[in-house]
Design goal:
Length: 379
């Protein structure tokens, strides 16, 4: 079973991801993880913290001469802005953050909660996902994510190979697939930032090269759509998750939603075993099982809760009405969210791959992958 946890506070010494159940025998390239960490720090509208940090990964365990050992991997991302011991507590909770409910729950201060609730923690999740995506690559499975909507401006997705879409995304300051529309969106971010406000948006992730049969219909907690839902919904500021046509499917008739099934003998040797689907409204998942089509996951991010022009709050000591606290923050982190969701999706898909093909070594997984496809093709 491939799983991970994270530890670390936003202004503590470091963030750590502990990855357990990762197969032995994968040559790991830390530069792949560092690339994702760097992308997470980017995107138009981010705050001052990203000018302080240069996030890179250090492996504290689990590797020998660059190869995974099959033992737990501890991944560390250092915080340069490790000033937590010097920071004051916060007495005016920010609406939309963990401040109020978290401090009451723990019978403690706001600082004690916000340091862990901060989206800085997602650096550790991206590090874990950056490792997991390298396991996926060994099986020809590729993941990419982008921004489809920002501050109410609908940009949409785009058809094309992941390589084509990645190069469009790289040309966009906001990580969308429509770089020609950047000026409209960056002007909006500037305007809203000047007004002391923040913006949310929608991100989309696509996974190509999946086999038929990851996940299961048989038990609720192992259905892949359910696992993806949990992982993506658990990213800071995410308020909604959809797969494929998502909420729109609820507004259509069955005949307009479900993807007809065809068969093409010439494609029998390929990953779909010859089965064809003219549409992919299911987003690659039927009954919690991958169906050989690209996986498509979308997530809605609310605007960041820390406002330079704060909303009303209450002083926790006096119970008097006061403005919420302001701490340095971002105007918009939707681009970063696209990187985070991409990497948490990568991790869940890798976990499902390990569930299906075994987790001791990559070599054994590859042999089982081949055997499975051979058996499935014979049916
Ligand atoms: C973040 C680092 C944080 C915030 C942001 C995300 O750093 P600092 O608090 O030192 O400015 O910029 O966190 C939030 C928006 C939040 O609400 O917690 C990061 O590295 O992603």
């Amino acid at each position: 079973m491939l799983r991970y946890w994270t530890a670390g506070e936003s202004h503590g010494p470091a963030l750590v991801a502990l990855v357990d159940g990762f197969p032995a025998g994968l040559a790991v390239d830390p530069a792949v993880i560092d690339h994702e960490l760097k992308r997470r720090q980017g995107g138009y509208g981010r705050g001052g913290r990203q000018r302080i940090e240069t996030d890179t990964v250090t492996f504290l365990s689990g590797l020998w001469r660059g190869m995974t050992l099959g033992s737990p991997l501890a991944l560390e991302v250092i915080n340069k802005d490790a000033k937590m011991e010097r920071l004051e507590d916060v007495d005016r909770p920010r609406p939309g953050h963990a401040d109020l409910a978290g401090s009451i729950k723990h019978l403690g201060g706001v600082r004690a909660v916000l340091e862990r609730a901060s989206a800085r923690e997602t650096a550790a999740r991206v590090a874990a996902g950056g490792l997991a995506r390298q396991l996926l690559s060994a099986f020809g499975i590729e993941v990419a994510g982008w921004v489809t909507e920002l501050g109410g401006v609908v940009l949409g997705g785009r058809a094309g190979s992941l390589a084509e879409l990645r190069s469009l995304r790289e040309a966009s300051e906001i990580y969308s697939l429509h770089p020609e529309r950047d000026p409209e969106v960056t002007a909006l971010i500037d305007k809203v930032g000047k007004e002391g406000d923040t913006l949310g948006g929608v991100v989309e992730v696509r996974v190509d090269g999946l086999p038929i049969g990851l996940g299961t219909h048989a038990q609720w907690d192992r259905k892949l759509d359910g696992r993806l839902g949990q992982a993506v919904m658990a990213v800071q500021a995410i308020k909604g998750v959809e797969i494929g046509m998502g909420f729109e499917a609820a507004r259509r008739r069955g005949s307009e939603v479900h993807d007809p099934i065809g068969f093409d003998e010439a494609a029998r040797g390929g990953p779909t075993l010859g089965f064809t689907r003219p549409t992919n409204n299911a987003g690659g998942l039927e009954a919690g099982i991958t169906n050989g089509q690209p996986l498509v996951v979308r997530a809605a991010m609310k605007p960041i809760a820390t406002l330079r022009k704060p909303l009303g709050s209450v002083n926790l000591r006096t119970k008097e009405s006061e403005e919420a606290a302001y701490e340095r923050s971002d105007v918009c982190a939707v681009s970063a969210a696209s990187v985070i969701v991409e990497n948490v999706v990568a991790f869940e898909v890798a976990a499902a791959l390990v569930d299906k093909f075994g987790g001791d070594s990559v070599e054994e997984m590859q042999a089982r992958w081949n055997l499975y496809h051979e058996l499935a093709r014979k049916r």
